[in-house]
Amino acid sequence: MLRYLTAGESHGPELTAIIEGLPSHVPLSTDQINHQLWRRQQGYGRGGRMKIETDRVEITSGLRFGKTLGSPLTLHVINKDWKNWQERMAVEGEPPADLAVVTKPRPGHADLSGALKYAHDDVRNVLERASARNTATLVAVGAVARQLLEIFNIRIYSHLVEIGPIQVGPLEGSIEEIAARAEKSEVRVADPVKEQEIIELIKRTRKEGNSLGGIFEVVVTGVPVGLGSYSMPDRRLDARLACALMGIQAIKGVEIGLGFDAARRVGSEVHDEIFYDEKRGFYRETNGAGGIEGGISNGEPIIVRAAMKPIPTLYKPLRSVDLKTKEKYEATVERSDVCAAPAAAVVGEAVTAWTIAQAFCEKFGGDSLEEMKRNYESYLSAVRAR
C-alpha cells in the first residue's frame, strides 16, 4: 500500500513527509521535486511569504544513487522564516514572557473551531498547522508520485477555468497545448486576453483589501482502464479523487467530467457512447464521464475540477469575537495572498498524481519497478486481447 504522513508547522523549523510503499528502483530526481515546489510559489496575487521562502527538498532516507530502495522515503522542506520565530515557536522550554498570545480567531479559518476542539487558549497552535504553507509537503509527495507515473506515460496537467467572476474558454487545442499556454501565464490561464482581465481584477481587489477564489481543472492522460473499483464506496476512484482535492485548504467543491452540468442535461447529452476498433480497442468519442465510470477509470483522460474559495485573511478585516474576552473586534491580518487559485492548481495536480499512483500501485503492485512493469504489460496484453 502506498501511503504518506506529513508533519510540520508553518513557522516551525521544517515541513516533513514520509512515504511508504514505493517499489524499489524507481529513479527520482530532487530537481524535479524542487521544480514542482517552485511552481506552487508562482502566480500573480501571491503574498509576502513567497518572497521569504524558496522551497527546496532534502531526501534523507529511502534513496540511494538516485533510485528508491523500497524502504520509507523521507523528505524535508526547511522553513527559512524559522530564524525569526525560534522563540515564539520553540519546541522545548517555557514561553517567553512577552509572547503575544493569539486570541482573536479569523472568520473563514480553522482558528475558532480548532481552538475549541483541541482546547487551545492560543490560536497560533491551530493556525500554524492549518496553514496552506503545509501544501508544500503535498506538492513534494505528489512530485514523487508523478515521477513514478511518468515511467508509464501517465501525464498530469492543469489550468484555471475561472477566477472570481471571469470565466476562461472555450479553449482551442489539445490539453497539452492548453497546459503549455497556461504554464506561461501569471495566473495559469490559457487565454492571453482573459489573463490581462484577471490581472486587472486582482489589482482592483487588492486595492479594496479583498480576495478572490477560482476554479482549476486537472487533466490526467495515459491512465489505463481499470484503476479503482465499483465494489466499495471508498475504493471508487472518483470518490478518492474528490477526497484528495477537498483535502486541500480552501477547496469547497469538486466535480468530475461534466460534473454539475450533467444534472442540467438529458441523458443522451451526458453518457459517452462506446465504440470498438481493432487497433484502438474500446473507445469513446466524448468524455462526459471525465474518464471514470462506476468508480473505475475507463481509459479516457481523467478530468477533475475544484473550486477554491477566496482567501479568508483580508486586508479589510471581517468582524469576529475575542476567544478570551468575548469582546467584538475586527479580525487580525496575517500575511496573505489576494488570489492563490493558480498555486492551488499545482497542489491539485500533486494530490491527483498521488491518488492515481496509489490506485496504480494497488492494481499493478510489486516490490520492484521491474515487477510492476511486468504486471502492467501483462494486464495491457490481456485487455487488448478482449
UniProtKB/TrEMBL annotation:
Its UniProt entry gives the catalysed reaction(s) as: 5-O-(1-carboxyvinyl)-3-phosphoshikimate = chorismate + phosphate
Q: Which PROSITE patterns match?
A: CHORISMATE_SYNTHASE_1, CHORISMATE_SYNTHASE_2, CHORISMATE_SYNTHASE_3
Q: Cofactor(s) for this protein?
A: FMNH2
Q: Name one GO biological process term.
A: chorismate biosynthetic process
Superkingdom, natural source: Bacteria
Stated EC number for the protein is 4.2.3.5
From the UniProt record, report the name of the gene that encodes this protein: aroC
Q: What does this protein do?
A: This reaction introduces a second double bond into the aromatic ring system.
Question: Which SUPFAM superfamilies does the annotation name?
Answer: Chorismate synthase, AroC (SSF103263)
Quote the protein name from its UniProt record. Chorismate synthase
Might you report a single GO cellular component term?
cytosol
What is stated as this protein's family in its record?
Belongs to the chorismate synthase family.
Q: Does the keyword RNA-binding apply?
A: no
- Which residues does the annotation say bind FMN? 129-131, 249-250, 294, 309-313, 335
Per UniProt, which keywords does this protein have?
A: Amino-acid biosynthesis, Aromatic amino acid biosynthesis, FAD, Flavoprotein, FMN, Lyase, NADP
Record's InterPro entries?
Chorismate_synth, Chorismate_synth_AroC_sf, Chorismate_synthase_CS
Keyword Transit peptide assigned to the entry: answer is no
Q: Which GO MF term does the entry hold, naming one?
A: FMN binding
Q: Which free-text remark accompanies the cofactor?
A: Reduced FMN (FMNH(2)).
Q: Which residues bind NADP(+)?
A: 40, 46
Pathway per its UniProt entry is:
Metabolic intermediate biosynthesis; chorismate biosynthesis; chorismate from D-erythrose 4-phosphate and phosphoenolpyruvate: step 7/7
The annotated subunit structure for this chain is: Homotetramer.
